[in-house]
User: Fold this.
Amino acid sequence: MKTSKILINIKKLDEMEKYEKIGIHNFLFALEDFSIGYPTFALEDIPEEAYILINRLLDTEAIEKLKSQAKRIGKYRGIIFEDLGVFQIFKNYDMELIWFQNHFATNYQSINDFLALGMTSAIISNEITEEEILAILDVASKPLILNIYGKNQVMYSRRTLLTNFNKYAHLDDNKRVILQEKVTNKEFLAYESPYGTVLFNNAYFNYGMILDHIDDAKIKYYLIFNLDYEPECILNKLKEDTDNVGFLHTKTVYRLKDYGSKVKA
Assistant:
């Protein structure tokens, strides 16, 4: 893996210089008022050579606000987005538009269909196996982005769940807490903003172990979401032989059972 192909989120502005010293030059900034789950930045603080993350599900008011800033945002290198309304606003701008719906990009047919609409690239879901990832890369019509390190987003709610619960339970109004599930003892990171609540698996997934199997020519970027570590540590973290989330080598099986009566033809 070439460090020149790493794309990493920024938590604080002074991280950029530190990442550049270790060979990372592609940066992703979560945009204030339009992003959830990560530290956000005002547009004027984001360098134009960076990518912008817009991963909120946008209502009419947010869409109109985004349209009012479209000319300014259109000068940036690109947008990584979840809501398809973002693509409709910016599809005629000279910038990269990258599809990132966390739980959707799991098969090459869907990915190629979105790329055919004019999207620059797509971020492969990190909830599929190595075999499935390689199969997608093999037939994708454009180089894709592989999410190789981060905390898996389990859930996104438009509700302010922490505020609601803390008010009910008479607790301090914390916006970022660790929750423990009682049966499995697994920990989850809950992160709230005015636009909703994101729940992450608090353990990092790590795809560093499969990078030697990947054809680098089929990759646009290797994406890292760093929520905790200092920039100097991040490349060493990729070398750790761990897959704490467990999707890489365990296929997810969905089983459907008909509990009702059969329908006659």
In short: The longest strand covers residues 144-157. Residues 258-265 have pLDDT under 50 and may be disordered. Residues 38 and 230 are 16 Å apart (CA to CA).
